[in-house]
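so im writing up the methods section and need the diguanylate cyclase record in one place, dumping it here so i stop losing it
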Amino acid sequence: MHVHPISTFRLFQEGHLLRNSIAIFALTTLFYFIGAELRLVHELSLFWPLNGVMAGGFARYVWLNRLHYYAISYVAMLVYDAITTEWGLVSLVINFSNMMFIVTVALLVVRDKRLGKNKYEPVSALRLFNYCLIAALLCAIVGAIGSVSIDSLDFWPLLADWFSEQFSTGVLIVPLTVMLLDIDYFKSINDNYGHECGDKVLSVFARHIQKIVGDKGLVARMGGEEFAVAVPSVNPVDGLLMAEKIRKGVELQPFTWQQKTLYLTVSIGVGSGRASYRTLTDDFNKLMVEADTCLYRSKKDGRNRTSTMRYGEEVV
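--- predicted struct ---
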C-alpha cells in the first residue's frame, strides 16, 4: 500500500517569480477593492487595516522582500486608482505612502524574525503596535511632503491630516473653494445697451474667469449674470486670492461696445472647506450655501468686493 503525500497549495513559492508576481498583483487589487468599498461605519473603512495585512504577507515570506515585488504591489494600486478614480497624479503620492507603511512594517518584522525576538507573543504584539505607529508616522510624513505642492497647504497641517483623518477613514480629504460671482448692475447694461451687448459682456466675463482659473477648477454659469467657480485642492487663502484676482481684473479691464467704453465690477462670495471624494456633492452644496450668503453680504455692503466667512469681514 502506497501512501501518496498530500500536496499543500501555496500561494507564494520561493523562486517562482511569475507566480509570485501575479499573486501579489491580484491580492493587492482585491484588498484595495475591499478596503475602498466596504465600511464598518461611514467613518471607518477597512483600507488601512488591510495595508497591515499586506505587510504581514511580505513579512511571512522573507524572500518576498524584494524591490520588484514591492513595485508590483505599487503598480497594482496605481492601476486600480486609474480605473476607478479620477485622482490623477495625486494617486502617486497616496499609494507611495501606502507602500511606505507596508514596507516599513514588513522589514521591521522580518528584522525581528532574524534576531529571534518573536518568542513571546504578548511582547511581539506590543512591538507590532509600535511598528505600525512608526510606519504610520513615516507614511504621513511622506504623504505630507508629496502633497505640499498639490494641496497648497503648509507641511504641518498636511501632516496632521495624513496622520489623523486619512488614516482613520481611508478617504482622501482635500481643501475645496467655491465662489459665486455676480456682475454688478447687469440689468442696467441690458436696459441701456440692449441684450446683444449683455450677451457679449457675459462672454467676455466668462473668458476672463476661465483664464484665471485655468485647469485648476471648473467654471459654470448659474443663470443670468451669476457664475460659479469650484476649485479643489486650494486652501482658503489661495481661494480668496484667486477671487480677488478675478474681481480686480474685471474692474481694471474696460469693455468696448459700439465705440462706447463700459467699466464692469463684480461681487463675489467665497465658501471654503474640506471635501472627500465620497461626499463631494454634499460638501459642494454646503459651500455653495456659504458662498451665496457671502455674495449677498458683498452686494449689501456696496458691491465690487469679495466676502468670506473665513475671516469675518469682506475684502474690498
